[in-house]
Amino acid sequence: MLVVMFGGPFVKIQGNPLLMLDVVERKVSVLGVIFWPQDNLIFALGFLLFLTGIAVFTAAFGRLWCGWTCPQTVMMEMVFRKIEYFIEGDSTAQRQLARDPWTAEKIRKKALKHFIFLGLSFIIGNTLLAYIIGIDALKGIITDNPRHHLVGLAFMGIFTLVFYGIFARFREQACTFICPYGRFQSTLLDENTIVVAYDYKRGEKRQRFRRSENFRQRSEGGAGDCIDCFKCVTVCPTGIDIRNGTQMECVNCTACIDACDDVMTRIGRPRGLIRFASLNGIEKGERLRVTPRIIGYCVILALLGIALLTLLLTRSEVDTTLLRAPGALFEQTAEGKISNLYLLKLTNKTHYEKPVELKLEDIEGSLTILGGQLTLPAEKQTSASVLIEIPADKLSSSATPVVVGVYSSGKKIERIKTTFIGPRK
Ligand code: SF4
Ligand code: SF4
Question: Which of 13, 48, 117, 311 is most buried, judging by how many CB atoms fall within 10 Å of its CB?
C-alpha cells in the first residue's frame, strides 16, 4: 500500500495520471481518463456506489478498512510507530522516557524522532499535492523560481504541518473525532457483523492468574480464561478496553488480538479469546451469515454499478453548451433574416485533437462560427461565438426551438437544443 500511495503520482496512462483530483483546473483523472464537471452524473453515481460499497463492507466485516487499508493507519503503524519504537523503544520504554528528566540522551532521541517525522510529513504533504495538481506541476514548484509559486509553496508548508500534527500528536484521535466513517459505522453494524470481539463467555469471570492453581481449579472457582493482565488495553492505540464490548473507537487494528494470543500461549490456553467474530458467533456459535440487509445492499450496489458502467460506456467524447450571448437581442438583416448571437463552450474529453463543425438542423438558415473552423485541443475546454441566421418567415414564434448538430470528421457526435429569439408573431 505504501508503494501504491507514494508511487501513484508517477504512474501515467496515455499521458494522464493514474489518479489526480485537480480542484484548481476542475478536472479529475481516474485510470488515465479525464473527467470534467460536465460529467456530474458520473461523479454522483460513482459517489453513491462508493457509499453503498462501504455500507455493504461495513455491515459484513465491520471497520476492517480502518485497521488495514486506511492510509492514516498504514502510515501510522507501518512507518511512524516503527520509527518511534526504533528510537524510543517499546511502549513501556516510551512511557519511562516521557517521565525522565530532560537529559542530553532524551533531547537527542526526541529531536531525532521529530526531525524524521517532519521530513516524512513533508514527503507525504508533497505526495498529496502531486495527487491534486499532478506530478509535473509539483516538479515545476520544486525546480522553478519560488517567487512564481508562492501559493503552491504555502500549500506545501500547510500540508506538511497538518500531517506532522496528525502523525506526531493527534494520531488515532483523527479516527475517533474527525473521520466521518468512524462516526456513522455504528449505524451499519448489527449482531451478525464481524468485528474484533472479546469472547466474554469464555473469558468471564476475569481473575488474576496465580501460578499455584491450574485452570481446572480456576474454572471450578468460577473464573474464565481472562487473567485480567490488561495487555489488550495497554496495546490499544485508541486506549479502549475491548472487553467492554464493541466500541466506536475500535479501528480493528487487531493489536489486542495479538497481545491476548501471546498471553494465552504463555499460560497454555487456546488462542482466540479476543478474535474476529460476530456477536451471534460468540453468543450462539453462528458462522458469518448473508443477512437480508446485506443482500439488499448488494442489489443496490449491483444496480448502481450497472448504471455507472452504462454511463461510462456511452459517455460523449465532446461536451457542448450553446447559450444565447447574455444581453444580446435579435437583429434583422437587409435580406429579411433574423440573427442571434450565441456563446459556444466545448470540452474535448479525448486524448487527441478533434476538429468540430456545427450544423443547423431541421430548419432553414445558416450557422457561422466566428473566427473560423474549430479544432479542439486534447482534454481542453474551448469557447467561441456563434451566429445563427434564419429567414423571418421560417420562425414559428418569438422563441423558436432550434437544434444544432455537432460533427467531427463527418460523424455526428452531439445534438444540442437551444432557443432562437425573433420578433413577436
Ligand atoms: S490480554 Fe487477554 S487475558 Fe489479558 S486482560 Fe486482555 S483479554 Fe484478558
Ligand atoms: S487494539 Fe483492539 S480494541 Fe483497540 S483499536 Fe485495535 S482492535 Fe480495537
Answer: 117
Quote the ligand 2 centre to 159 CA distance (angstroms). 28
Query: Kind and range of the H or E element at 180?
Result: helix 180-184
**Per-residue cell: 178:** 474527525
Tell which atom from ligand 2 comes closest to the C-alpha of 242.
3
∠ CA 70-193-268 to the nearest 5 degrees?
Answer: 90
Sign of dihedral through CA atoms 238, 241, 243, 249?
Answer: negative
Task: Give residue for cell 476538429.
Answer: 355
b/e 44-62 (16+ beta carbons within 10 angstroms → b): ebbeebeebebbbbbbbbb
Instruction: With cut-offs at 50, 70 and 90, classify the pLDDT of residue 172.
Output: confident
What predicted TM-score, i.e. pTM, was given to this entire model?
A: 0.73
Closest CA to 330 of 417, 391, 383: 391
End-to-end CA distance of the chain, in Å? 68
